[in-house]
Amino acid sequence: MKHLPVLYKEIIHALQPHASGRYVDGTVGAGGHARGILEACAPDGQLLGLDLDPQALALARETLAPFGQRARLAQASYTSISQQLSQLGWDAVDGILLDLGLSSMQLDTPERGFSFQHDAPLDMRFSPQNPTTAATLVNMLEEDELADLLYRYGEESDGRRIARAIVHARPLQTTRQLAEVVVGVSPRKGRVHPATQTFQALRIAVNEELDSVTEALPKAVSALRSGGRLAVISFHSLEDRIVKDFFREQSRDLVNPPYEPIYEHERKAILKEVNRKPILPSEIETADNPRARSAKLRIAEKL
Ligand SMILES: C[S@@+](CC[C@H](N)C(=O)[O-])C[C@H]1O[C@@H](n2cnc3c(N)ncnc32)[C@H](O)[C@@H]1O
């Protein structure tokens, strides 16, 4: 299935790209949002697109070819945004997008191992340079560590039972083997496939997704010029909570109360939340693109 950029119009509206502006798409994927940003900052705005996945970058390169030197691409994590910008000699940028998670291309490429709908090796890495695959975690972790991972990253209430069954069935090499083990011990909950949360948890752990978001947000804010905007699309509550808490925390002054011991350094707010509540896709968008259903967009502006 073709990857339709989620909340496309909302992203362009949020970032307000303008001529001679500089933008970073930290998760460029197939380049759908990046193309919109480059069109909106014509004739001379520039964009740096980052992605860990060389296959995604190959698609982005094709999509963004018409923009020539205005589009730059690098295989790198968005956590390295500061180094990437200094390599280009860009000291501050006007807008940054993070569209978190995985793309339809990745989900629909069987050999990437992201989906229980196809039988494939348990891989789930965004970057081929990552030494840890889903098979590594499934076959090497202690039962307690696995249960913890399923609970923490999948919010899986059957985590303990699933972890025990996995340890019992190891070695597991394929997505189908893993899905069958989960189905064997965890009954179907409504319309959701029982292995959904297990697969989500493993993907998050393999790619250290939550740590990456936590690490990247302050770096992204420092890379913005005053008045620049950071837009983040998340796809599950764990990610959204990190973004929400960070935006909220950074948009208030920290003042020590009088007559109390000083417990924190005072500091001024550095962000303004553009929307207190997350922006959600319209019904029309979710009807066209079911993947958009769980998307939440938060936008903050640097003061
Ligand atoms: C939802 S897709 C982005 C789709 C893109 N906005 C588009 O319009 O095509 C998320 C992308 O982020 C990439 N990704 C995930 N973690 C990353 C990280 N830490 N650094 C850079 N890219 C990452 C994935 O490889 C994937 O291609």
Q: Quick summary of this structure?
A:
The protein has helices at residues 8-15, 32-40, 54-64, 81-88, 104-108, 134-140, 143-154, 159-169, 175-185, 196-206, 209-223, 237-250, 283-288; strands spanning 22-25, 46-51, 71-75, 93-99, 224-234, 271-273, 296-302. The chain is an alpha/beta fold and 303 residues long. It folds into 2 domains: 8-105 and 209-302, Rossmann fold (3-Layer(aba) Sandwich); 131-206, Putative methyltransferase TM0872, insert domain (DNA polymerase, domain 1, Orthogonal Bundle).
Question: What are the defining features of this structure?
Answer:
binds S-adenosylmethionine, alpha/beta, 7 strands, DNA polymerase, domain 1, 13 helices, single chain, Rossmann fold, 303 residues, globular, 7-stranded mixed sheet
CATH superfamily of the largest domain: Vaccinia Virus protein VP39
What's the story with the biggest beta sheet?
7 strands, mixed
Count of extended strands: 7
Give the overall average pLDDT: 95
Q: Give the terminus-to-terminus CA distance.
A: 40 Å
CATH architecture of the largest domain: 3-Layer(aba) Sandwich
Strand content: 5-15%
The arrangement of helices and strands along the chain is: HEHEHEHEHHHHHHHEHEHE
Ions, cofactors and other bound molecules: S-adenosylmethionine
Give the CA-based shape.
globular
Radius of gyration: 20 Å
At the fold tier of CATH, the topology name of the largest domain is Rossmann fold
Low-confidence stretches: none
Structural class: alpha/beta
Strand order of the largest sheet: 3-2-1-4-5-7-6
Q: How many structural domains are formed by the residues?
A: 2
